[in-house]
Structures are given as structure tokens and as C-alpha cells.
Amino acid sequence: MPNPYKITLTDRFLAATFLKLLPRRVTPNQITVFRFFAIPFIAALFLLNEYLFGTIVFAVATFTDALDGALARTRREISEWGSTYDPLADKLLIGITAFLILPMFFSVWLVFAIVFIEMVLIGMAYYNSHHGREHKITVNWWGKSKMLAQSFGVLFVLFYILWPVALLLILAQWILYLAVALAAISIITYSV
């Protein structure tokens, strides 16, 4: 079983920079809760065509995914609650934003693939946690890479809305295709 406290190079960078800015009383779970609370505000901003503010809040919320994980590992504060709800917050953030933004520019099938795979992963995690399966779904490299690709793909679309440079949309499309491939691999690696 992998060491849940294994500190990555990213964790070290964040610990030396951004984590120093957080008060000691801030916990990883509080950062995850912030992400949950940010999701309806992001959705409302996009529905109101407030793309600049929505993009800023989306970028901050996405960045908190890296922060809460690094904080949990470097402080050795990994909890069962965080292990369950951090990925759920990520999937809701990406799924809702993808549903609201991506159909304006891409095929409904790409959006469906992104949202569907996120729902499958949520279902697998729920099933495993409620049916006493010994092999618990944990975050792996494929899942982290998928989340990173999804975040950047959606961000590039949002940047395109703000600054319509065709290259941003082309990059977004290829990054989102990569995210779907990584998501499919993460499903396979979770189920073995």
C-alpha cells in the first residue's frame, strides 16, 4: 500500500511558498469545504455571463485542490473525510463547469465524456466505501494528471472567452481529449 504521506516535489514547492501564507489553524478539510462553497458561486457567475470573475474564482478553487493535498501530506493531516470529499469536490467543480461552459465550443459528446467519467468515478468510490471492499480507491498519478488536464483545458476555454485567440481553443480541445484518455486509464487502474 502506498504511503499516503509521501511528499512530492509539488508539495515541497507549495510548502515553501503558498502554504507559508496560510495561518496554522487552516486545515486541509477547511480548504476542501471552501471548494464546495465556491462551486455554486462559479456556476452563478457563468450563468450570469460574468466570465472574468467566474474564471478567477474557478482558478482559485482549482488551485485549492493542490493546496489541500499538499497541506494534508506535509502536516500529516490526511483524514478519511478529506480522502472521500476532496475528490468529490474536484469532480463537482470540473463537471459543473464543463457542463456550463464547454458546450458553447465543443461537441456535446466531449462534454458528456468528461461528465460521465466523473460520475463513474464518484459511483465507484461510493460503492467501494459502502460495500466494505478491501481495495479502497485512492488517488493515483492517472487521476491527478486527469484533474490537471481537465483544469487547464477548462481554463483555456475560459481564457478564450475573455481573450478570443484561436490557439487557446485549439489547446483546450487537445488538452480535454487528453483528459478523457487519462480519465479512462484512471478508471481502469482504479478497478484493478
Q: Rg from C-alpha positions?
A: 17 Å
Looking at the overall shape, the CATH architecture is Up-down Bundle
Helices and strands, in N-to-C order? HHHHHHH
Q: Per DSSP, what share of the residues sits in E-state strands of 2 or more residues?
A: under 5%
- Low-pLDDT stretches: none
Shape: globular
Q: What top-tier CATH class fits best?
A: Mainly Alpha
What is the CATH topology descriptor? Answer: Four Helix Bundle (Hemerythrin (Met), subunit A)
* Structural class label: mainly alpha
Task: Name the CATH superfamily classification.
Answer: CDP-alcohol phosphotransferase transmembrane (TM) domain
Q: What's the β-strand tally?
A: 0
Largest sheet: none
**What's the helical proportion of residues?**
over 70%
Number of domains: 1
Secondary structure tally, helices = 7
Task: Report on this structure.
The protein is mostly helical. The protein has a single domain, classed as Four Helix Bundle (Hemerythrin (Met), subunit A), CATH 1.20.120.1760. Helices cover 76% and strands 0% of the residues. The mean pLDDT is 88.
